[in-house]
Amino acid sequence: MTKNLLCFDLDGTLTRRELLPLIANEVGLEHEFEVLTKLTVEGTISFEESLRLRFAILKNIPVDIVQQIICHAELFGKIIEFIRNNSKRCFVITGNLDIWIETLMKNLGCRYFSSKVTASDNRLQSLDYILNKSTAINVLKRDYPQHNIIAFGDGLNDYPMFEAADKSVAIGLTHQPSRVLISKSNYVIYEEEALCRLLNTL
């Protein structure tokens, strides 16, 4: 019997708010991030360019402060409970930075893929690797050749993950998912309860 691996975006899919704007609001950098978010959504700059600029803006914020902000971010509780109960077949695939989200991921208890940084003395030093989400899907296909991979996400940067996955679900729990993403999706879901019902059938 073929089994399903479930791969979740983090921001806006598992969290009730996007994490980078949340961090920016907490440290008084709202305007800078509003501009970057607008340019990224409009496609004026790529996700990679946007992440590099966000890194430059936030690199001097102490790492432990960012970790605390992320750990207090509001999550979709029923989805998180499902992941914890099915941690061996659930994965988080996020462009966020490994050191920022490591405590949150430990609490989830599942494997994850992320962008990578070097940090020293509680500060970010360098942005070493920006995750392309299709890379994570291809690693899972290699490691679990007898499994189908189902991707869940909401933004344009999830499109490579949707292209590489066997099936995909566009999520509209936090905001309207990208039209491009919807065009690539097998399902579009706007309510947490509906998503949980789907997850329990997979």
UniProtKB/TrEMBL annotation:
Transmembrane segments: none annotated. Keywords: Amino-acid biosynthesis, Hydrolase, Magnesium, Metal-binding, Serine biosynthesis. Its cofactor is Mg(2+). GO terms for cellular component: cytoplasm. One of its GO terms (molecular function) is magnesium ion binding. It comes from Dryocola boscaweniae. The keyword Protein biosynthesis does not apply. It catalyses: O-phospho-D-serine + H2O = D-serine + phosphate; O-phospho-L-serine + H2O = L-serine + phosphate. Pathway: Amino-acid biosynthesis; L-serine biosynthesis; L-serine from 3-phospho-D-glycerate: step 3/3. The lineage of its organism: Bacteria, Pseudomonadati, Pseudomonadota, Gammaproteobacteria, Enterobacterales. Its EC number is 3.1.3.3. This is phosphoserine phosphatase. It is an enzyme of class 3 (hydrolase). Pfam families: HAD. One of its GO terms (biological process) is L-serine biosynthetic process.
